[in-house]
Design goal:
Layout: E1 2-6, H1 7-11, H2 25-40, E2 46-51, E3 62-66, E4 69-73, H3 80-90, E5 97-100, H4 104-113, E6 116-118, H5 120-127, H6 136-146, H7 164-167
Helix pairs in contact: 3-4
């Protein structure tokens, strides 16, 4: 799977506060990329984040790597949505792409090309420092649910005893 993230769209879904620190927007972007890098570590899929170049890269756009995450910037005058659509169009196996964005127009265009989509808040929950981080098993369930497949029913070994000790 190739996870493509609409960078600023997801960043606007981030809560403001101590969990997502940063005095400047650039600080918050770096913190977001660090969290995304932590999330991507140990996962078999590729992660690409696309930002509008006018807010971050050089005038001609550009590419960078940060913590195992590919970071792309659109050229000045072009938006990240256009770069994402060109990226999807050039992908040989677009069905293996999951685009994270809450932009309904972009999500609709991505689905028409054959990609799957997820809302920004779903990724934000996965990047949140609170609570347990999802492991590879829950990531597979997320992928199946997003792609429209019903998750398999969990398999249970033997029925548990009804004693309070076994229910603990």
């Amino acid at each position: 799977m190739h996870l493509v993230v609409d960078g600023y769209n997801v960043m606007h879904a981030l809560p403001i506060g101590r969990e997502w620190p940063g005095r400047t927007f650039q600080d918050r972007r770096h913190h977001f990329l660090d969290r995304l890098g932590d999330y991507a570590a140990g996962r078999p899929h590729r992660v690409t984040v696309v930002f509008d170049g006018a807010r971050g890269g050089d005038e001609m756009g550009g590419a960078d790597w940060r913590g195992g995450v590919e970071v792309l910037y659109s050229a000045r005058g072009a938006d990240a949505d256009s770069l994402i659509l060109r990226l999807l169009d050039a992908t040989p196996r677009v069905a293996a792409v999951l685009l994270v964005t809450s932009d309904k127009s972009l999500a609709g265009q991505a689905r028409s090309l054959g990609a799957s989509t997820a809302r920004a808040d779903e990724l934000v929950k996965r990047l949140s420092p609170r609570g347990p981080q999802p492991g590879p098993e829950s990531a597979a369930l997320f992928e199946r649910r997003v792609k429209g497949f019903a998750p398999e029913a969990p398999r249970h070994a033997a029925p548990r005893s009804k004693s309070p000790l076994h229910l603990w």
